[in-house]
Fold:
Amino acid sequence: MARHKIDHPKDARRERLVHFLRIEREQLPGERSRTLMLRLQRRAHQRLRAFTRIARGQSV
Structure:
């Protein structure tokens, strides 16, 4: 028979939370991945700016 909620030690909740947080953090992108993604986003923004400048007929 399962124990009642009151009968469970409070430490088990903390261990469970730590376990879930570890799993969640493992699924997040790493620091290097984040920097690469930001770099690619910046480059795309710069490319768009250059294309719109060229479309308007402006030179450097």
Observations:
- The mean pLDDT is 82.
- The helical segments are 10-27, 31-55.
